[in-house]
Structure formats: structure tokens, C-alpha cells
Amino acid sequence: MSTTLSFLARNMLPTFHHKNQIFRPFSFYRLGPKNTNKDLTNALRILKLVSPKKTVTDIENRRSHLRLVEDILENTTTNPLGSNLKTVTETILESSVLEMEQGLGIDVCFLSHALSLCGSKRDFYGGIQYHCLAIRIGFIANVYVGSSLISLYSRCGLLGDAYRVFDEMSVRNVVSWTAIIAGFAQEWRVDMCLELFRRMRGLELKPNYFTYTSLLSACMGSGALGHGRGVHCQIIQMGFHCYLHVENALIAMYSKCGVIVDALYIFENMVSKDVVTWNSMIVGMRIMGVNPDAVTFLGILSSCRHGGLVKEGQVYFSSMVDHGLQPELDHYSCIVDLLGRAGLLLEALDFIQNMPVCPNAVIWGSLLSSSRLHGNVWIGIRAAESRLSLEPGCSSTLLQLANLYASVGWWNQVARVRQLMKDKGLKPNPGCSWIEVKNKVHRFESQDKSNSRMNGILLIMDSLVDHMSGLSLQFQISEEENIWISQ
């Protein structure tokens, strides 16, 4: 173990220092067109060091994996992923190499997670080194390590090698079957996906929702509508038809296969939608020559706003012009709220100032709420004053403005606003909430203590506050409005 890692440190991996010792993390070896023969020679030398232990009963399994890795290295003389290969893994992997060198050891969870990270980053040479490590320490037969290896080689474009890993596995579960099905789905090999699925069901393994999304992806890419409908029927039978990711995959499959009516039916009957849902629906409409309208984009922007997807929302807003649509005030309001919720208050204010249409009270109110949420007094004052110029009789805005002035010590302005409210006979509308218990609606208003069970309610609130404090949650109490604001 120590010999192998020391060899890696001397010959292949970049250096970093720890406790007066020199180490080099895994996954820092850059695969490229230069010095290919030298790189391959060093990699093959590692294989000679990770020879099987004689005490392990599955020696043949280890040898087959050694042959597999050797074949991969010999056949991969150039970067299989082009110049975009990222060879720096997460910090957790680097620190874990230190632990291994110090003799603390690793477990199956670490190896599986490390391989998964390499797969998600398309880090081929980092992943193959962890493959060697799995062989060396005897974890190669673990089903989760094997499943992670399948995903790694599939994502690196080595589907044949991924299938060899799958074929070598002595034990397979739904994760490993799904991993290889997903690998063939990436190549749109619907025939192979369905064959693997048939074999999996023959073993009485219960597929999960990701298994079905992979099958739908294969059907979508190959245009196999009939197979896609068959998968849809099985999804309904298994009870996965209400899963958001499955519904998104169904919309994409029907849209790409040209059956926009079925895609629209699923879309309209979904309980919840995310940006992927809207995007899949729009792509399908465009394929069929049906352009989205202003209402469609309003729904997309609303989803981005609630999901905090700033870049996506800006992209969709900009694409309205490409579809021959002129944004309306509601669309502008969504973008202001999107930026404000994300704390991009200066960007939101600049967006308002450069709008080709005059902002309404709703837009300024949205910026005011975001300013209070993120504690930006000056932009909040600007938003409140701008909203009052459009709605001078809005008592809630006047009250918020007075509170903002007070927070910066502008007491003359506080007195002016209070006097203005008094002269106009304006009183703040009390905030209220309600809850239905046993078919009866209970209403609560700010500072209303007429409820006979108020003492018990306050005790519960105090208990909740103590619990939040114990969890290190920050919260504020608005004295004027008696509102709890959790942050």
C-alpha cells in the first residue's frame, strides 16, 4: 500500500506538503497528447505493483480486473475526452490520500464516492487510479464500487469497458443494473437497454425511478415511440408516474418523438413543475413548430424566481425577443424579484432603471421586500419612495419607509411620514394568518390577543424560538408588524 502510493508520488503526481512530508494527490495526472508513451509506461508500472494478495479468495477476479485496466491503458493512447478533461478532484480526495499514506486506511464508501466524483468530472486517469487502488486493497468485488466504475467508464466514453466491469461483477443489484442501462442510454442504444432491463426483471429485481428515466432517455434519443409507450405503462404500474424526474423524462420523450399532445397532457396534469419541465415542453413545442407565448414565459420565469435560478431566468427572459415576444410588466417584475431574492439588489435597481417601460408599484414593492430581507436600507428607501409616488395612500409602504428612516437615524423623516399617515387617517393594515383545524378556520391578527388560548400559543412560540436558537438559526422580530422572519 505504502509502496504503491510512494511510487505514485515519485513518478506521476504533482507535489504538496504536509507535516514535513511530500505527497501528491490522486487525480492530478493530466492525460494529453504529449509524452504519451512515457505516461503509459508509468501507468503500466503501477499495475505490476498492485498484484493480487495470495490470501484473498477472489484472486481470479482481481486478475481479470488487472487485465481490464491494462487493456484500457494500452488502448487509451490519447485523451478520450478531448482538452476539457479536468484532472483536479475535490479536496476531500486529496486529504484522504494523506490518511492512506499515514496508515489510517479507507473503506468502501470512500472508494465509491471517489469514483463517483471522478465520473461526474469525467476524470478518466483519476478514476483509473482509484480502480487500481480498489484492486490493491480488495474492494473490487463490492457491488457499489463496481457500480461506480460502470458509471465512470460510461461517462468517459468507454462503454465497452463499462460493460466488461459489469460482466465481471459476481454480485449485481438494482444500482449496478441501472448504471449499465444508463450507460447504453447515453449512446441511445434502446435495444441493449431493453434487453438489459428484461434480464434485470428476470432476476426479480425491482427497478427504481432512475432506471425508467434512463430507458426513456434511450427511447427519446432513438425515436422509439412504441418502446417509450411500453415503458410509460410500466411506470404507471410501478407507481412512478408522479415522480417529477420521471414526468420530465416522459415530456421530453413524447416531445422528441413528435407526440406533443401526450407531452402537453402530462405537463398540464403535473402537480409541480421545475425549470426542466418548462424547458422540455418548450423544446417539444419548437420541434412541432408551436411557439411559446407570453404566458408560457411567465410560468418559466416564475419557476426560476421561486427556484433561485438567476442565470436561467435571465436567459429565458432574453430569449423572448427571439420568439417575437415583447416582455410585459409581469415579466419584468419576475426578473426584479428573481434578482432581489438572490441578494443582487444593485443589479435589480439597475434593471428597473433601464426598463423600456415605466415600473409599476408591484415592481417597486418587490424591490422593497428584497431590500428589507437582505438589510439594504438605502435601496429600500429608494424603492419605498418610488412606490409611494405611484400609490401615495399605501399605509404599509409608509410604515416600512418610516422604519427604514428610523434604522439610519433620520428622525425628522420618520416624524414627517408619521404625520403624513396621521393627516390622511391611515392606519397599517394588521397582518394576519389562518389555519384550518378540524374543518374550522382559526384567524390570527397582529397584536390581537382576544383568542382565549393565546397564553398557550405564546408558550409554543417561545418553545419554537428556543429550538431555533439551539439550531444556530438566525431570526429577526419585526416589532411594528409582529412578524417572524427566519434567515
Structure, described:
The protein has 487 residues and is mainly α. It has a domain at 433-466. It is built from 24 helices and six strands. The chain has helices at 2-11, 36-49, 59-75, 91-101, 108-120, 124-137, 143-155, 159-168, 174-186, 190-202, 209-222, 225-238, 244-256, 260-268, 275-287, 294-307, 310-322, 329-341, 345-353, 361-374, 377-390, 395-407, 411-423, 454-470; strands at 16-18, 21-23, 432-437, 440-445, 475-478, 483-486. The model is unreliable at 1-36, 43-57, 77-104 and 476-487 (pLDDT under 50).
In angstroms, what separates the terminal alpha carbons?
48 Å
Mean pLDDT: 75
Low-confidence stretches: 1-36, 43-57, 77-104, 476-487
**Basic shape:** elongated
> What does the main sheet amount to?
2 strands, antiparallel
Q: Structural class given helices, strands, pairing?
A: mainly alpha
Q: What strand line-up does the widest sheet have?
A: 1-2
The number of helices is 24
Strand content: 5-15%
Helices and strands, in order, run as HEEHHHHHHHHHHHHHHHHHHHHHHEEHEE
Approximately how much helix is present in the residues? 55-70%
Q: How large, in whole angstroms, is the Cα Rg?
A: 30 Å
Structure summary, number of beta strands: 6
Mind sketching the topology for me?
Elements: H1 2-11, E1 16-18, E2 21-23, H2 36-49, H3 59-75, H4 91-101, H5 108-120, H6 124-137, H7 143-155, H8 159-168, H9 174-186, H10 190-202, H11 209-222, H12 225-238, H13 244-256, H14 260-268, H15 275-287, H16 294-307, H17 310-322, H18 329-341, H19 345-353, H20 361-374, H21 377-390, H22 395-407, H23 411-423, E3 432-437, E4 440-445, H24 454-470, E5 475-478, E6 483-486
Helix pairs in contact: 2-3, 3-6, 3-8, 5-6, 5-7, 6-7, 7-8, 7-9, 8-9, 9-10, 9-11, 11-12, 11-13, 12-13, 13-14, 13-15, 14-15, 15-16, 16-17, 16-18, 17-18, 18-19, 18-20, 19-20, 20-21, 21-22, 22-23
